[in-house]
Design brief:
The structure holds two protein chains of two kinds.
Chain A (H helix, E strand, L loop, with lengths): L15 E5 L4 H9 L4 E3 L2 E5 L5 E5 L9 E5 L8 H10 L7 E5 L16 E2 L1 H10 L9 E6 L14 E6 L2 H9 L7 E5 L2 H7 L8 E9 L2 E8 L6 E9 L3 H12 L4 E9 L24 E4 L3 H6 L6 E4 L2 H7 L3
Parallel strand pairs in A: 1-2, 1-5, 5-6, 6-8, 8-9, 10-11, 10-13, 13-14, 14-15, 15-16
Antiparallel strand pairs in A: 3-4, 11-12
Helix pairs in contact in A: 1-8
Chain B lengths: L33 E7 L9 E7 L7 E3 L8 H9 L7 E5 L4 H10 L3 E3 L3 E4 L5 E4 L10 E5 L8 H10 L7 E5 L19 H10 L9 E6 L14 E6 L2 H10 L6 E5 L2 H7 L8 E9 L2 E8 L6 E9 L3 H12 L4 E9 L23
Parallel strand pairs in B: 4-5, 4-8, 8-9, 9-10, 10-11, 12-13, 12-15, 15-16
Antiparallel strand pairs in B: 1-2, 2-3, 6-7, 13-14
The chains are: A alpha/beta, B alpha/beta.
Chain lengths: 326, 365
């Protein structure tokens, strides 16, 4: 029965049993809170004395005939194996379908196959995931947000169905809420970011930057667009050290941007590099980022930056809950 | 397919019949050795203390004993002469930082084995940044990789190399994984138990094929015999054993005619008795009395014998210690132990230091 006399949806909603890794517990709870159709399930994550995982899937019989999903986070190589063990086991428990939600597909953010001898670890990861056993529901659905390199979508074999999602709708909603929503310009730090995102943001004026080499140095320049007087939001898929964003901010400010903010889907921030962006680290508060939006795809970062301005977390929970209905 | 150029096997072992170009290799892995000379009390009448030098390894690497009297490398001499007349396959051997010492020893055994290096670095975010130098140089060659999955965190970077090498136009690929980890404590008893051994086998079964066909996977004394069936058809598992090394060593002992083999349980007996048939045997088992478990001798008599307990691996060492007590109580003259894989989590090898009792630990591959 729909509310307010709305028409009923054409297909009944899927009941989904959602398992999750230890790191993702907060996000999993938020996803389950979004929908009555999602039930949280648990796994015992223990270790043997020799360091190898000792895993147990609770209520394994209860998930027979049910749609099952697993929310994963491969924040470091050390946590991959235990999650893969569960991911390989769940589809074979007579479930009706299996969906793997991996918000951030790691590795590969620095690597380029430039030479024979370069080892593409992104491809290794894709191969491991492509080998997930099929379940009664067929190939596993694999939900990934803003995959870094567009060609990585072709790394996956036929036994998984990748579903490439994006966090940009969350950004757009947030921008609509800003008091200066009509004075926003979107900036891309390089052509790669422009390729990935411009179509989703084409109703905003745009600025595109580029890295130019001068002698030994690399300098960020504005290639096209004009930020003067606007609230400029730099958009990229991920941030590592933050160096690129800081360089962009300087150039945009130098060209008259009124305010500069940033959005990245994945706040990777290895080794606590998010500290560079907290307000206390700026001598001149006016050159700080007004807002720094990240999603909760990288749970360890989310915990680290909690309540630290200018960071705000835009949660993927609603988007994931919707994706589980596909 | 000629793939296994460097591990020997005694011909009478029924499982492995197609071995070509045998070389006997000492499989000891050395890493950060701590040398300690120790005196061990033995039960024999003449009270001669024996001198053994031990090289203990840190963390979870196998315990290694160098017998001062005899270099294991000399065992290679007998096999080397057999292979001199056959054409020897040249192999490019890659390795990971943990297996470097062993790889160097392997390459030293044969001119046909050439060591190759890999750049093992990491990106800031902790993920591997790997490069295989001179990748063109291995085209058309037989290539092998000596792996060690000592902990889950080490798997991903080695796996990246393992998945990459076969696609570099090499003529064949062999993965040597002396110890196949996981599963040693786990049993699928309940639906819900996650068999991580199966996960690892699945990951390895997915190694791309090279021009030489499926990858050969060499592993020693795999813990559960059924694990051999975990592997798919795109990989050729080759199940080796360390028992021949033990047999050679036992033959060198002065009391080699007074040795009995003891198995701590039926599993060990199943795994090893055929290779050790010419020794008298003792089989132990664990019996439950109330809440406690005791080790009992089920068959065989250790009285007056030098008993060597044989198993595939040791973790905490509790089982070995219990067996030793029972065997001593039944009159064993001396007790030693052999395990192929000395895992010893949390430094449990310390329980076997000589001052802990009458241990004469000859051990561990």
């Amino acid at each position: 029965m729909g509310q307010n006399g709305e028409a009923q949806p054409l297909s009944p909603k899927k009941q989904v049993h959602l398992f999750y890794c230890v790191e993702c517990e907060d996000l999993a709870r938020k996803v389950a809170a979004h929908s009555d159709n999602i039930t949280l399930q648990s796994i015992n994550w223990r270790n043997f004395a020799d360091g190898w995982p000792n895993l147990y899937i609770n209520s394994a019989h209860d998930i027979r005939g049910q749609h099952v999903a697993f929310l994963a986070s491969f924040s470091s190589p050390g946590v991959v194996f235990e999650q893969i063990s569960v991911i390989y086991a769940l589809p074979r428990l007579f479930v009706a379908s299996f969906t793997l939600v991996l918000p951030f597909f790691p590795t590969g953010s620095f690597e380029r196959m430039e030479e024979e001898g370069d080892v593409a670890t992104a491809f290794t990861m894709a191969r491991i995931l492509s080998n997930i056993p099929i379940s009664r529901g067929g190939p596993t659905s694999l939900v990934i947000y803003d995959i870094h390199a567009l060609q990585e979508r072709f790394y996956f074999g036929d036994h998984v169905l990748p579903l490439f999602e994006t966090g940009i709708p969350l950004l757009k909603q947030r921008l609509d809420q800003l008091p200066d929503a009509d004075k926003i310009v979107v900036a891309f730090p390089d052509d790669g970011a422009w390729k990935r995102f411009h179509k989703q943001l084409d109703h905003f004026p745009m600025v595109v930057c580029a890295k130019v080499r001068e002698g030994d140095k690399r300098i960020v320049r504005i290639k096209e667009g004009n930020p003067a007087g606007f609230h400029v939001v730099i958009v990229d898929d991920l941030v590592q050290s933050g160096g690129t964003l800081i360089e962009c901010q300087k150039v945009l400010a130098a060209h008259g941007a009124a305010k500069v903010s940033a959005y990245v889907t994945h706040g990777v921030f290895p080794k606590g590099s998010w500290e560079r962006f907290t307000l206390k680290n700026y001598e001149n508060p006016e050159s700080a980022f007004s807002y720094f939006w990240i999603t909760d795809s990288c749970p360890n970062t989310v915990k680290a930056i909690a309540n630290k301005a200018p960071f705000e977390v835009l949660s993927l929970a609603g988007s994931i809950a919707d994706a589980l209905q596909i | 397919m000629e793939a296994h150029a460097f591990f020997s096997h005694k011909p009478h072992c029924s499982l492995f019949t197609k071995l070509r170009n045998p070389h006997l290799v000492n499989q000891n892995i050395k890493l950060q050795p701590v040398r300690c000379h120790s005196q061990i009390k033995s039960f024999d009448n003449n009270n001669q203390p024996r001198r053994w030098s031990f090289e203990f390894l840190r963390q979870t690497e196998p315990l290694h004993v160098i017998q001062t009297s005899n270099s294991p490398v000399s065992m290679a001499a007998t096999s080397a002469s057999e292979s001199a007349s056959k054409a020897v396959k040249k192999v490019c051997l890659f390795f990971c930082p943990e297996t470097k010492a062993l790889a160097e020893r392997i390459a030293a055994q044969s001119d046909a084995i050439e060591l190759r290096s890999i750049n093992w670095r990491t990106f800031e975010d902790g993920f591997p940044n790997l490069f295989i130098p001179n990748a063109h140089g291995i085209r058309g060659h037989h290539v092998a990789f000596l792996a060690a999955f000592s902990s889950p965190g080490k798997i991903f970077e080695q796996l990246s190399v393992i998945y990459a090498l076969p696609k570099l136009f090499i003529s064949s690929f062999t993965l040597v994984l002396p110890f196949f980890p996981t599963g040693t404590s786990e049993r699928m008893e309940d639906e819900g138990d996650v068999a991580t051994a199966f996960t690892l086998a699945r990951i390895l079964s997915n190694i791309p094929t090279s021009r030489g066909g499926p990858t050969s996977l060499v592993t020693f004394d795999i813990h559960a015999l059924q694990e051999r069936f975990y592997f798919g058809d795109n990989i050729l598992p080759f199940f080796e054993s360390g028992i021949p090394l033990l047999k050679n060593r036992l033959q060198q002992l002065p009391d080699s005619d007074n040795i009995s083999i003891a198995f701590p349980d039926d599993g060990a007996w199943k795994r090893f008795h055929k290779q050790l048939q010419h020794f008298p045997m003792i089989v132990c088992n664990k019996v439950r009395e109330g809440d406690q478990r005791f080790v009992r001798i089920r068959e065989g008599d250790p009285r007056g014998r030098h008993v060597v307990i044989v198993d595939d691996l040791v973790q905490s060492g509790g089982t070995l210690i219990e067996c030793q007590k029972v065997l001593a109580a039944h009159g064993a003259a001396k007790i030693s132990a052999y395990v192929t894989h000395g895992i010893f989590p949390n430094r449990s090898w310390q329980r076997f230091e000589p001052d802990n009792g009458a241990w004469l630990t000859a051990a561990i591959a």
